[in-house]
Amino acid sequence: MSGSNLLVNKGIITEVIVNRAHAANSLNNEAWQELVHTFRAIDEDDSIRVVILRGQGEKAFIAGSDISQMVKMEPHEAACFDELCHRAHMAILGLSKPVIAAINGVALGGGCTLAAACDFRIAREKARLGLPEINLGIMPGAGGLKIVSRLIGPAKTKQLVYTGDLIQADEALTIGLVDRVVEAEQLNDEARAFAEKLAEKSPYSLRLAKSAIGEYTGLNKELGFAYDTLGFAICTSTEEKKEAMTKFLNKGK
Predict the structure, then answer these.
(1) pLDDT tens, position by position, 30-44
(2) Are the beta carbons of 26 and 71 closer than 8 angstroms?
(3) Of 91, 189, 219, 237, which one is least surrounded by beta carbons within 10 A?
(4) How far apart, in whole angstroms, are the C-alpha atoms of residue 187 and residue 72?
């Protein structure tokens, strides 16, 4: 299951690790594809009971998509890219096993929405989360708005999206974006202990419960995701997007 961008430690509890620490674990096109393929393969493997998703290193969980690829995208390319990102989110949402996000650093944009797509989120105390796409002249895509709104409601979602501000783990806990905040050195142990607890439960009961909850909350439906893709694609055609992303990429030079 492992690829160049992902490491997979397979077992009853399987770890999926985004292995792009050199780029703050941001996801390029290939990494998004690997996420889709990896989670689909996990779904078909009955020996796996629980999944832990985390980023390599101590600085980032997933810092969204690779801006160096996005800056070049035309609207039709952006729509195709967003549909790929959507498939990755749906692969996690629709997975028949619980997924725990171990948020070991920044979770930005698509990283934040991927964490929200997981069943549970445990964050280290210095983690920061947010949807800063507005600062790059675009909006969140891939169905992320619907997923985050399910957790924290429309008002808090608007605050994150409209301002582009990042929030600390403690505030994310207060508004319901994460479920637990722990000290950095405890994160992996806490995620593992919780995964072990879930792995002891009936996999069939967990699968049916997850599916039922998905139906009740509407997250098993495609309706609403198309709005994100359309808005995301339109935003990529603007000069504001090109200027903002170019400025971001030149900031570190």
Answers:
(1) 999 999 999 999 999
(2) no
(3) 189
(4) 37
